[in-house]
Amino acid sequence: MPSTSKPCGCFVRNRSGAVIASPVLWPLAAGLGAFFGYANPAWHFPLLALVLPAALSTFGRAAQTSRQAFALCWRIGSVASIACLYWVYWPVMHYGEVNWILALPVPVLLAMAMGCYHGLFGVAACLSNRLSPLLAMVFLGLAWTSMELAQATLLSGFSWLTLASAFAPWTIVVQAASVMGAYGVSGVLAAIAAGAVLGVRAKACLALSTALTIALLAFGWQRMDNDAETTPAHTVAVVQGNIDQSIKWDPAYQMDTVRKYVRLSRDIAASASPELIVWPETSMPFYFQDDTPMREPAAAFARTGKAALLIGAPAYERTSGPQSFVLYNRAFLLTSGEASQTWYDKEHLVPFGEYMPLAGLLPLQKLVSGVGDFVPGRNEHPLKVNGLALGVLICYEAIFADLAQERVAQGANVLVNISNDAWFGDTSAPHQHLRLASLRAIEQGRHMVRSTNTGISAFIDPLGRVRQVGPQFAELAAAGVVHPRNDNTLFHNVYGWLLAGLGAAMAVFAVLIFRGVPRPGQTSGLR
After folding, report:
1. Is residue 17 within 8 Å of residue 3, measured between CB atoms?
2. Is 395 one of the annotated active-site residues of the chain?
3. For strand 466-468 and strand 19-21, is the pairing parallel, antiparallel, or unpaired?
4. Which residue, among 457, 520, 524, 419, has the nearest Cα to 127 in the 3D structure?
5. How many angstroms separate the CA atoms of 227 and 485, rounded?
6. C or N terminus of the chain, fewer CB within 10 Å?
């Protein structure tokens, strides 16, 4: 009879009783793989990110019960999540006025919550023992896609740890996102990792894993080789003000901020003649809609007609409800003829950053200083200027596939991401954010213009290739070329069917798993 492994033991044994690894070393390996496999400021090697799905598949399938699988994989997933999300302590400590002793546990708690998703994947891996190795490999790929979709949806959503984003610098690998989306590519990558695990005993899984790798690369090569621009070029510029977050909302510095952005805009207008200049999220740290002296320099520049301006600023709307007004995180479009007549209000807000969930119950303050709680916007239509229909994604809206899908469905032919990654300091977060944004460009087949306060500002083409235009923590004004595109990717056209197909496939596998009968001497994995 096989030995029973325990999550707290020194080693884990598989269902045949053989020792496979230490549950202390594997979380450490998964953590190191996650840190260096995902984007970071030190050294990035995407293949290392596959250590996590490989470890979860190994321990989930080795577990004697679903409860044990959850515990083992939760531990591994939590450590890997801490390695990627450690940066959360930075804004909590520096801008949330929280002592570092209290700030350090915050990313740990977040990572433990994210680890629950990995624990559920471990349960799926445990249940996959009731399938043939090839079916188990396919099932685990679908389970990973389902896990990432759940991360993007439940409890406001936080799809920061998308596996495909780790491979975004290797653009040839992730071109399939134009067909199946980033979450689908993540599922294929997880299936490849699971196939390597299963291939130790089932050579057919190793063959399928190899075939999937070749298919990803072949499709990527074909798409990148055949891509061509068919529409006129438009010159667009980004301005990176590099405003210190600690003084950004101080009234004494507000006019200096306006003057800096106008100066940089005049410089790039003179040297590159862009049609549009994009400023970062809340680049204007005051209510820009009000006709005040602080607003005038930017409005005057727009009236010259040298370039249209896309400006980030807080905004308000008066109401007749219990509160006299509500606040929005807004992007204003200013042109020579109709300054500040069109705008986009951020739809997906950051909990604890832009609003406080359960504000009446939690004795905490949100991190954004200078303004009160924002409310979600309701206007998703693109902002139009000179033949460009701008689908605006503010800050971490760029990590959500469904929001970019909505912008293009509304008619956007170029995507624009304005952000203020100064919150994150010199951590992995700005690098990870950039790679997540590049996936939206591939999924929708659109150029993306990205302007941030302290970097990383960039131009991203429809193949996800990032043209980084300057270093972090330096002021910058740079121009690039974009082409408006109106053709939609296959992913965009079949988006709803892909979700339905994933649900149907998981339902079929549920039937196969729960109708199966355990072989003699094999546990069911359901305890």
Report:
1. yes
2. yes
3. unpaired
4. 524
5. 12
6. N
Distances (CA, A) of 36 to 86, 167, 237, 437, 480: 13, 12, 32, 19, 30
Do the Cβ atoms of 209 and 192 come closer than 8 Å?
yes
Q: How far apart are CA 454 and CA 238, in angstroms?
A: 12
Question: Do 432 and 426 contact (CB within 8 A), yes or no?
Answer: no
Average of pLDDT values for 438-464? 97
* Paired sense of beta strands 276-278 and 308-318, if any: parallel
Catalytic residue list contains 281? yes
Q: Are strands 19-21 and 12-13 parallel, antiparallel or unpaired?
A: antiparallel
Provide the terminal-to-terminal Cα distance of the chain, rounded to the nearest Å. Answer: 18
What span, in angstroms and rounded, lies between the C-alpha atoms of 195 and 161? 21
Strands (E) across 12-59 are located at: 12-13, 19-21
46 DSSP 8-state letter: G
The structure tokens listed for 286 are: 């005051």
Assess whether the previous peptide bond of 456 is cis (omega < 30° from 0).
yes
* Among 281, 347, 354, 397, the one annotated catalytic: 281
Find tokens 């149907």 and name the residue.
Answer: 504
**Residue-wise DSSP of 249-267:** T-HHHHHHHHHHHHHHHHH
Alpha helices in 274-349 (DSSP H): 296-303
How far, in Å, CA of 401 to CA of 444, rounded?
A: 9
The one catalytic residue in 347, 366, 395, 397 is: 395
Distance CA 353, CA 365 (A): 9
Six token digits for residue 421: 């990654």
For residue range 99-116, what is the model confidence (pLDDT) as tens digits? 778 888 989 999 999 999
Query: Region 251-261: what's the mean pLDDT?
Result: 94
Residue 275 DSSP SS3? coil
Structure tokens at 430: 């700005």
Find the catalytic residue in 346, 347, 366, 397: 346
For the beta sheet containing 414-419, the strands, ordered from the edge strand earlier in sequence to the opposite edge, are 383-385, 388-394, 414-419, 448-452, 458-460, 466-468
pLDDT over threshold 50, residue 526: no
Q: Structure tokens of 110? A: 């977040």
Using only C-alpha atoms, the chain has a radius of gyration, in whole angstroms, of 24
Helices (H), 243-389: 251-272, 296-303
Q: Is 346 a catalytic residue?
A: yes
What pLDDT is attached to residue 423? 86
Q: How many other C-beta atoms lie within 10 A of the C-beta of residue 179?
A: 17
Virtual torsion, Cα 157, 163, 169, 175, nearest 10 deg: -90
pLDDT (tens digit per residue) in 203-237:
999 999 999 999 999 999 999 999 999 999 999 99
What tens digit of pLDDT does each residue of 127-150 get? 999 999 999 999 999 999 999 999
**Mean pLDDT value across residues 283-306:** 92
As given in the structure block, the two tokens for residue 311 are 């400006």
Burial (CB count <10 Å: 0-12, 13-18, 19+), residue 208 = buried
CA 426 to CA 252: how far, in whole Å?
26
